[in-house]
Amino acid sequence: MADLAMPVCIDAPPPARRTVAVGVIRRSGGRTTTLTATEAGASGSIRPAVTR
């Protein structure tokens, strides 16, 4: 079987794109927890869960 792995280019520059923000929404115990993080900082909230 042929080896189809791509060769590694060590001299390649880093990609121009970067992560701008991440976010998480978690629902448990009758609560909804929201967390957002950016380069400027992080914020979040805890609220009663919304019935679906």
The low-confidence runs, each spanning 5 or more residues with pLDDT under 50, are none
Task: Round the Cα radius of gyration to an integer and report it.
Answer: 20 Å
Specify the structural class. mainly beta
Number of helices: 0
Tally the beta strands: 3
Quick overview:
The protein is mostly beta strands. It has strands spanning about 20-30, 30-40, 40-50.
Descriptive labels:
single chain, 52 residues, mainly beta, 3-stranded antiparallel sheet, 3 strands, elongated
Description:
A three-stranded antiparallel sheet has the order 1-2-3, with no helix packed on it. A hairpin with a 2-residue loop joins strand 2 and strand 3. The mean pLDDT is 82. It contains no helices and three strands. The protein is mainly beta.
Lay out the secondary structure.
Blueprint: E1 21-28, E2 31-38, E3 41-48
Antiparallel strand pairs: 1-2, 2-3
